[in-house]
């Protein structure tokens, strides 16, 4: 059977389309400029120059030094390196490190922390996020202990789009830390990059994660910002690349693509206001036209492109399939948790119950979303929900 191509793509939190300017920038590095950035000859040096230009583009975006930007194979790798790398340094000091995170982090943060906890290597605190999906700064303050080596709180959530008070958390950590090195502060800014200010100085973070494919760049490339003098142990061995922290031949084309994508974020940020309007039209339209629908996560502290809505009496997966048949691509939970029948850990953390978690659909818009597409969704969605409620016997 031939796969039907989605025509209205509202799954941008899973991945974004590649910007044509990004592709254009990348193409030479697949063909004529195929050099290894570590080679001394001219081809190698051309690749090196391209890698360093991308580093400059990222540094400009984050307001940091170029030497603080590390290219990684993915944001998942960046998150793992931030956590495991910090823990390994702290362990050498002979203490059992403590990490603070929260229950709605991406698995790329939660899983390494859970693994370290399960194997007895660290103590961990998983803070709640309450009904709004937001971490309370006072909870962070209360949780910090003398052996806390790392606080890892994402800037914005991938499923419900809620935005965390990163600068306030940094303040609390800074007050506790004083002249000492710990606790360090890491934020996963993968979903925030298109919409929020990622000036690391203003945010007050020591470590920050980015991903190429959420910002109209290529898949398989990430960034870890590491503030100068922050000690990290490598987690992979076998090469000198990225100051020995991320060994392996640089993926030059992807690095160039990420650099270009980062550069373009600035211009797409100018459109955030109109994107927010489209998102609000979608949210308000659904909540008004379809009874028993609920927005998941804070309405105010929310990314401009995210609408995560539960449709009471409807299985999210069933609605996803009907929408897909109508040429509309959405997601239930995050892409990474799709395929498993377990309710999303993020929605379950909001304490809204299993049924509401299973009936949630995530619409994530992009800089390319147009009003006509939102109108189309609002036109076809009520009938789909009505149909699914009818066959499941749910009465409004
Ligand atoms: N962190 C967050 C918040 C994400 O949304 C994702 C991807 O869904 C990742 C990390 C992992 O990114 P990558 O696909 O680059 O490994």
TrEMBL record:
Cofactor annotation:
pyridoxal 5'-phosphate
For this protein, the Enzyme Commission number is 2.8.1.7
One GO molecular-function entry: cysteine desulfurase activity
* Keywords per UniProt: Iron, Iron-sulfur, Metal-binding, Pyridoxal phosphate, Transferase
Keyword field contains Transport:
no
Q: Which Pfam families match?
A: Aminotran_5
The UniProt record lists the keyword Metal-binding: yes
Kindly state which reaction or reactions the protein catalyses: (sulfur carrier)-H + L-cysteine = (sulfur carrier)-SH + L-alanine
Q: Which domain of life is it from?
A: Bacteria
Which intervals hold domain Aminotransferase class V? 8-377
Top-rank EC class of the record's enzyme: transferase
PROSITE patterns, sorted: AA_TRANSFER_CLASS_5
Q: Which family does the similarity line name?
A: Belongs to the class-V pyridoxal-phosphate-dependent aminotransferase family. NifS/IscS subfamily.
What this protein is called in its record is: cysteine desulfurase
The lineage is: Bacteria, Candidatus Gribaldobacteria
């Amino acid at each position: 059977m031939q796969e039907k191509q989605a025509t209205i793509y509202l799954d941008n939190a899973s991945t974004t389309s590649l910007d044509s300017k990004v592709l254009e920038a990348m193409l030479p590095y697949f063909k004529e400029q195929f050099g290894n950035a570590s080679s001394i000859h001219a081809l190698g040096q051309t690749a090196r120059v391209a890698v360093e230009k991308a580093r400059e583009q990222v540094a400009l975006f984050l307001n940091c030094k170029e030497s603080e930007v590390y290219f990684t194979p993915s944001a998942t790798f960046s998150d793992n390196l931030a956590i495991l790398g910090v823990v390994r340094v702290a362990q050498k000091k002979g203490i059992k490190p403590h990490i603070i995170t929260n229950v709605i982090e991406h698995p790329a943060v939660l899983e390494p922390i859970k693994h370290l906890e399960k194997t007895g290597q660290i103590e961990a605190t998983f803070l709640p996020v309450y009904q709004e999906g937001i971490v309370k700064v006072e909870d962070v303050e209360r949780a910090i202990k003398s052996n806390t080596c790392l606080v890892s709180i994402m800037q914005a959530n991938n499923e419900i789009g809620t935005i965390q008070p990163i600068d306030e958390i940094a303040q609390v950590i800074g007050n506790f830390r004083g002249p000492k090195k710990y606790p360090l502060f890491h934020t996963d800014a993968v979903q925030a990059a298109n919409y929020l200010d990622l000036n690391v100085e203003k945010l007050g973070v020591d470590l920050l994660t980015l991903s190429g494919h959420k910002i109209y760049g290529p898949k398989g490339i990430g960034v870890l910002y590491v503030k100068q003098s922050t000690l990290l142990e490598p987690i992979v061995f076998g090469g000198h690349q990225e100051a020995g922290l991320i060994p392996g031949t640089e993926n030059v084309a992807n690095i160039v693509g990420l650099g270009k994508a980062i550069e373009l974020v600035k211009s797409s940020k100018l459109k955030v206001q109109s994107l927010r309007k489209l998102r609000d039209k979608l949210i308000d339209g659904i909540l008004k036209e379809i009874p028993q629908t609920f927005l998941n996560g804070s309405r105010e502290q929310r990314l401009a492109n995210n609408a995560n809505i539960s449709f009471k009496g409807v299985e999210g997966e069933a609605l996803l399939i009907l929408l897909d048949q109508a040429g509309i691509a959405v997601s239930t939970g995050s892409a990474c948790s799709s395929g498993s029948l377990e309710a999303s850990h993020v929605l379950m953390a909001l304490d809204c119950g299993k049924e509401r978690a299973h009936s949630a659909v995530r619409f994530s818009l992009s800089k390319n979303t147009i009003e006509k597409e939102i109108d189309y969704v609002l036109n076809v969605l009520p009938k789909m929900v009505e149909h699914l409620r009818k066959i499941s016997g749910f009465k409004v």
